[in-house]
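Consider what follows.

. . .
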Amino acid sequence: MDTSTFFRNWWVILIQGLLMIALSVLIFNNPGAVLITLAFWLGIVVLVTGLYGVIAWFATAKNDRDTAQLLYSIVVTFIGFLMISKVLVSMIAITVAFGALVCMIGLVLISGSWKARKLWSMWWVVALIGVVTAIIGVKSIFDVETGAESISTLIGLSVLLAGIGLVFLAFLKRKVVKAVEAL
């Protein structure tokens, strides 16, 4: 096997990892911009999905067309258009949905820890995490800024961890190349 082809560009992965780490810093420092971008691109995805449904309806043979599917696609297209043209409303909707999900997770943690209190002496740690999670969820529902910060933090952590993983992978690839070449 020719290792030069497979492992030759380890430094490309290193650069990608470093760029992702730098991007995570930008994400952490600009939560509002992250939420605006997320709302805009989500609107584009919804719009394209609706348009695709409309186009697919016309591309389908006349006897196989479903009018309900066409109406659904038109509504989805309209919602996508609204999401793009009213980005602030989309941002609010995203933070409310995110906050509701986070709040539910917090309540599940509280409930589960309460049920396990007789089985585990550290149940209160999970309950405390649940309370903090529920509070963050409620704040995200009622405060777009808090929601933007929470969403941005999660996205930033994901990008940061992926970047760190790529840096480690690059050095691992480099080490494997040297080990194979030494053989």
Q: What stands out?
A: The chain has a mean pLDDT of 92. Residues 36 and 69 are 30 Å apart (CA to CA). Residues 8-182 form one domain. The longest helix spans residues 144-182.
